[in-house]
Q: What sequence folds into this?
């Protein structure tokens, strides 16, 4: 066995306890391992490290230094996102999101944290911010595309394919790490490539100003401040999410449990973890989604995360200046084939975990890293499609309001 390619490191910022005081709570960077999957050596070692990261953190940085997805393809995808969001509003609205989860997500349409949010996330105001691409068939989108990016269809299809291949590779490594052969299946799935644009603080300040103007009809807008979240606390629906971010555009935070008193705290996730500064692009941040957590009886961890404005006084990756610019990110939400039954993954480790949880809780369901209950392991769904539909209904309240048709969404 060689260890020259299978590198797992913990972000040193976490170990050095670099902290920011916010509301009296000490915040440190999330301790997320970096795993290099670019080597050809002992895949079992890499697979074990990947599963350990998925069990402990639910998040892992995947460093493949351009081998799995060329840095140029990532740069081009971000350039395409800028072009798309600059397109005229009517173009994007003509592709409004549908119940198949494809298309353009308009103002206040998606509420990521339905219990705690009054209105949709800031990424939905004051202008539309998200575009979901579903699967391509023979390089062709199976949904309307805004004319501005119609000629870029081959590029989007290629990026989708890169992401899909990387997801399959990670799935396969997880399978190896769980001691279970990976059984690839083919067919339509809910997999989505999503381009995201979050408005800068200045745009929100203008919206707030508008809201306080007596003649304004925009009474719903909340006052904008750096305390606002850019995207509410949520976990992802699918099996794996690949997240691409831009250096200098921080904001992602994961919920962690403080070892000191067990309290929950939000920990920033640096875009460029230590040791990867010279890579051609930041490592891909990968997280376990609810479906895979469910599928593994809660062994793999689906972790709450959110996006905030950069914190004043944060580390070098947390410059407040970044809040003055729009923030772009790209997420690839990988889902299994829709008809696939989500019976527990036949892995000895999954079985042992489920049995341990069962005896600990007296049959009350699976627990997470710190022994707390994992709701995604307790849900009763049958197939990947049913799992997705359950989550879409909770997130797209307007779209699934049976008294409204999809074309009547706010933008
Ligand atoms: O933009 C980000 O950094 C995170 C995006 C995200 O969590 C999501 O779209 O589910």
A:
């Amino acid at each position: 066995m060689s260890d020259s390619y299978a590198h797992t490191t913990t972000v040193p910022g976490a170990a050095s306890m670099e902290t920011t005081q916010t509301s009296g709570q000490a915040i440190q960077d999330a301790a997320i391992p970096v795993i290099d999957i670019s080597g050809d050596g002992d895949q079992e070692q890499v697979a074990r490290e990947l599963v350990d990261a998925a069990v402990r953190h639910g998040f892992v940085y995947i460093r493949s230094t351009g081998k799995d997805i060329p840095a140029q393809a990532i740069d081009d995808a971000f350039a395409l996102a800028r072009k798309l969001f600059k397109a005229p509003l009517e173009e994007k609205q003509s592709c409004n999101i549908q119940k198949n989860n494809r298309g353009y997500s308009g103002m206040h349409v998606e509420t990521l944290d339905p219990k705690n949010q009054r209105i949709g996330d800031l990424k939905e105001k004051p202008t539309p911010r998200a575009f979901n691409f579903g699967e391509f068939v023979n390089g062709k989108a199976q949904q309307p595309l805004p004319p501005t990016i119609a000629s870029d269809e081959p590029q989007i299809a290629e990026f989708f394919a890169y992401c899909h291949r990387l997801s399959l590779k990670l799935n396969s490594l997880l399978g190896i790490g769980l001691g279970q052969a990976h059984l690839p299946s083919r067919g339509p799935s809910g997999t989505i490539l999503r381009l995201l644009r979050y408005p800068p603080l200045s745009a929100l300040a203008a919206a707030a100003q508008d809201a306080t103007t007596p003649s304004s009809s925009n009474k719903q807008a909340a006052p904008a401040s750096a305390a606002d979240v850019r995207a509410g606390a949520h976990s992802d629906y699918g099996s794996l999410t690949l997240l691409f971010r831009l250096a200098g555009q921080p904001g992602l935070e994961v919920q962690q449990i403080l070892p000191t008193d067990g309290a929950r705290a939000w920990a920033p996730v640096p875009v460029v973890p230590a040791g990867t500064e010279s890579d051609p692009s930041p490592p891909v941040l990968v997280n376990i989604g609810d479906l895979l957590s469910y599928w593994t009886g809660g062994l793999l961890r689906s972790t709450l995360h959110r996006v905030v404005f950069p914190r004043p006084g944060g580390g070098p990756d947390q410059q407040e200046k970044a809040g003055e610019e729009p923030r772009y990110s790209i997420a690839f939400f990988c889902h299994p084939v829709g008809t696939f039954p989500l019976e527990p993954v036949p892995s000895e480790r999954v079985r042992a975990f489920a049995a341990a949880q069962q005896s600990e809780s007296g049959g009350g369901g699976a627990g997470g890293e710190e022994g707390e209950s994992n709701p995604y392991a307790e849900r009763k769904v049958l197939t990947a499609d049913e799992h997705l539909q359950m989550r879409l209904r909770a997130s797209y309240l307007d779209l699934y309001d049976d008294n409204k048709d999809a074309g009547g969404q706010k933008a």
Summary: The chain has one domain: 8-395. The mean pLDDT is 78.
